[in-house]
Design brief:
299 residues; alpha+beta; Dna Repair Protein Xrcc4, Chain: A, domain 1; Helix Hairpins; 2 domains; 9 helices
């Protein structure tokens, strides 16, 4: 796997609202290697991968009055796409638009560089089935398994909490506030409620905005783990396998995210699950009391 493709793999999907359409997108741009871009409207996936030589030729064709190195063009494109993928307002004079073509999808960019108009066309063609699997199918399957495991662990934890509370009650403890009282956790009832109430809303994928906004950290954690496993399979015994961050990733990073350590996959999963399932009510404090003078189970 090339460095640009490695960097693209661990980038999260972003949601773009363009005048013509809404798209999911991810990109990796390196001033030394070129760029790789993926776009999807949830019906098709388009891809473009170009090196600095192609960038130089296309820039000269589209910008007759501009003279700059490929790295300068790539650095400018990285800034423009970073703004777009982060969901920030485009700087004054910068516009993005897309157009369906017979061969794929074109993303047009208009801006200024060194005080002169700058135009760029990302000319994407249909992605191969292997790319779709690598960037969508396999990560989504991994994310589903992680979330399924989370539900099992939380159900087990709730059963243990019920047993703990019952033990306190049998020891004579009482609730200091009646509104904190809860029913025993029934996993079957909970799953039925999910199927009837939560599932319809969750399956309303629409334009993919919720997926891109809410599950970025989990997606990145899963793709990083996939990259680690693939690299171990191909480089078993190599002393360099301890460093699992793609060497081109730092330069190809689009979203301004902090650099993560080699243990980032597991940490990202934990942080994501904690963030997405956090409860507004803080965990009550438990206190045992004597049978004769109960002072309350929760303070």
């Amino acid at each position: 796997m090339e460095e640009l493709e490695q960097g693209l793999l661990v980038q999260p999907w972003a949601w773009l609202q363009l005048p013509e359409d809404s798209l999911l997108a991810k990109a990796c741009i390196s001033k030394d290697e070129g760029y790789a871009l993926l776009l999807s409207d949830l019906q098709h996936v388009w891809h473009e991968r170009v090196d600095p030589g192609v960038v130089d030729r296309r820039a000269k064709e589209l910008n007759k009055r501009l003279t700059a190195t490929p790295s300068a063009f790539l650095s400018h494109l990285k800034d423009l796409m970073g703004t777009l993928l982060e969901g920030s307002a485009a700087p004054r004079g910068v516009t993005f638009s897309c157009e369906h073509t017979p061969d794929g999808l074109m993303l047009r960019v208009r801006s200024e560089l060194s005080g002169l108009p700058f135009h760029w066309h990302f000319q994407c063609t249909l992605a191969t089935p292997s790319l779709v699997s690598q960037h969508l199918l396999r990560p989504l399957m991994g994310m589903s398994l992680v979330l399924q495991g989370q539900v099992r662990e939380l159900a087990s934890l709730l059963r243990l909490k019920d047993a703990e509370i019952q033990d306190y009650q049998e020891s004579g403890a009482v609730l200091s506030r009646d509104q904190l009282k809860t029913e025993l956790f029934d996993e079957n009832s909970f799953l039925e409620q999910v199927m009837t109430e939560t599932l319809p809303e969750a399956c309303s994928i629409e334009n993919g905005r919720s997926f891109a906004m809410k599950l970025q950290n989990l997606y990145v954690a899963v793709t990083r783990q996939e990259f680690q496993a693939e690299r171990k399979r191909h480089h078993s015994g190599d002393s360099q396998t301890s460093d699992m961050t793609p060497s081109g990733e730092a330069d190809g990073r689009i979203l301004n995210q902090p650099e993560q350590q080699s243990s980032a996959p597991s940490l990202s999963v934990l942080e994501t699950l904690n963030m997405d399932t956090s409860l507004s009510m803080q965990r009550p404090h438990l206190s045992k009391v004597k049978r004769k003078k109960p002072k309350g189970l929760f303070s």
